[in-house]
Every structure is written in C-alpha cells, then in structure tokens.
What we know:
This protein has 410 residues and is α/β, with parallel strands linked by helices. It has 15 helices and 19 strands. It has a seven-stranded mixed beta sheet with strand order 4-19-10-3-9-7-8, sandwiched between helices. The chain has a four-stranded antiparallel beta sheet with strand order 13-14-16-15. The model has no long low-confidence stretch (mean pLDDT 94).
Amino acid sequence: MARGDGPITANGRTYAWPARPLVVVCVDGCEPDYLTQAFLAGAMPFLSSAVERGESLLGAAVIPSFTNPNNLSIVTGVSPAVHGICGNYFWDRDAGAEVMMNDPKYLRCETILAGFSEAGASVAVVTAKDKLRRLLGHGMRGTCFSSEKADATTMAEHGIDNALTFVGRPLPSVYSADLSEFVFAAGVKLMESARPDLLYLSTTDYVQHKHAPGTQHANGFYRMMDGYLAALDAMGASIALTADHGMNAKTDEDGIPQVIYLQDVLDGWLGAGRARVILPITDPYVVHHGALGSFATVYLPEGADPRAAAASVAALPGMDLVVDRDEGCRRFELPPDRMGDLIVISGRHVVIGTSAAKHDLSGLDAPLRSHGGLTEQTVPLVFSRPLSGRPPARRLRNFDIFDLALNYAR
Ligand SMILES: [Zn+2]
C-alpha cells in the first residue's frame, strides 16, 4: 500500500490515515485527579484550554492495571487475551520457572504502529524505561528508543544514532522525573525534524508513585508536560492523551503500608510452598513500590478446589475481588495460559505481597502509592481536537485511543 492511500487494519480494527501528525501520550499512573488538580492550579494552561476545544473523557484501563499490559493494549487496540502480555511475569508450569514477558516473542499480535509503518507511514516511539521498548517497537520500521538507554542507540537497532546528542539533554536517572521529561523533549525534537505521522510517547510513574494529585511536585510534573504538549500543538500535531492505570495511596491513615502477604497466608493454610503467588508488577525497578500492587495470581497445588480457595482468600480483610481463572479471564479478557488458578485483587488502599521477608520496603522514601486493581482502572482520555460521530453508548477503553483519535477527531 502506498503512503496515505487509506485506512489500515490491525487486529480486526480499522484506522484512518492521520490527517496531520498524531501524538498519542500514555502518562504512566495518571489517575484522572492529577489532571483535574493541575487544571485547577493553573499548572496546565495549554491542555486545559485545548480540552475546551477538544474532548475530555474517562475510560477503563486493562486489568491488571499495570504498565505493560496497558501499553501493549494501547498500541495493539486489543485486550491481553489477544496480545498475550498480562504482566511483567508469568509462571511457566512446564518449565517450572517464573518467566519475564519483556521479550517480543510473548507478543501474540501486531501493533497499530507496525501496521502503519508497513503501509508507509513514518512512525516514532519514545518510552521512558527500556523494558517496554522492544515490545512497543515490535515489527515497526521507524525510530524507537528509551530515555533510559538513549546513550546507546544505533540506526540499525533504534532507527536513530546517538539519541542523547539528538535530544540534547543529559542521560536521566532511571528513578527520576527527568526520565519522563526526556521522553517529551525527544518527542518535540522528533516533531521538529522527522515530523512523524504517528508519535507514541510513554512516560514512567516515578512522580505518581511518590506524590498525590494536587501536590506541589505532582503539579510541577504536569506543568513540565504541558509545555511540551503546547510545543507539539504549535507544530500542528494533534494530541491524544491517556494513561496505563491510575494510582492510589496503599496505606492506613498514618501512612503505614497495608499489605496482605498472601504467600505467607497460603503457606499457613496449605503448607509451605504448596501454592505459588505471582505478582505480575515485579520488575527490575521496584524501589518506588517494593513490588507491591493490588493484583496477584495464585497457582494452587494439584487437586485443590479453586472455588473453595477463592472463597477463603476473598474473606481476607482488604480483598476486593477473588475469582477463579475461567471467570477472571472472561471478565478481564486475559490469556488463560498465562494466569494462575486464582485472580486476586485487593482494595483501594491495600496491596498484595508474597512473603513479608521478600519485600524490601526500605527504599520507600514516601508513603506507599501503587496500582494494579479495579480501583486504578479509570483513566483519562483527552483529545486536543473534538470528536464527532462516536457511538454514544460505547464503554470506552484506554486502548480505544488510536481509534478515537484517528477515526473520530476532526
Ligand atoms: Zn504504569
């Protein structure tokens, strides 16, 4: 297909060719209240006026409300049942090992970005953490790099030589707000130079894990972002913004983390190590959340009754929803072969751990904030241009963002 010939189809959905450059931003951990508070404080003069002309909606993220499943849903336009990425880890029963799902070989479908690049569109992706880069850029021709490893890019691997020099900022620390600012700065440079048809920017939730909506640091972060979004808009790009998940305090009123150490509980009931708790939030960067989130999946020992186990786990104080694999996968559109026998979700201010001895909370320098559950499912869907002709009764998802921006924005 020649460039600009018409719509493309990816995973059964059709996307119109962008009439002008489209920037899709996934703001990691952007609970809707961050935008509300930043607007009220006057910290986002561009975006707050852009939504007056455009559209500000809410949508539902994918459960588990974690980073990778949602980023992959956004760039594929489908649920984890189709794309296969349902967390950072799954338990491979055959291999008897915890397997990281960062490798593109675990991705079961193509991305919208790859589809457009194949059709001749110019496509670019900048992500904060390198863990997402190869998944987001899978099958895509174009530029794709991370802030984290911007000092090690090559034309062959990333579609750009020396991204650090190109962006003109120092390499940010992986635990910093700068890691996200680098994403936006790179986006503006790319729009000034290559002017891609599609640009996907994905930040990190370092700030959101530490700072509640409306606080000085949070508003400062959103003010920074607003400046870059204004620059992209001034270059004629259309902007669509969503989030991978929300964020809540996971503490009591005194700021003490409220943790259910589920492996310890199950060891007490069934015997040590007979059940296995997998926390799909676990990744190489756990300092800011101690690998604690509101979602877990449990592999039960041979012969155990999942429904009875679900009822016992659900009765633990602080649980929100506990279901067996079939019901959980149906309800949340998850791949059954990568989930345990139980799907376990804790409440708004409660997280799930494995064993108390396995979680190092000493790196937390602020009261625990995290995500993963149903209480972090609502996210913003914000467009700099108005949408028209959208079916009114449709339940919106964050992974409808390319559809909404390409097919309905004027
Ligand atoms: Zn995230």
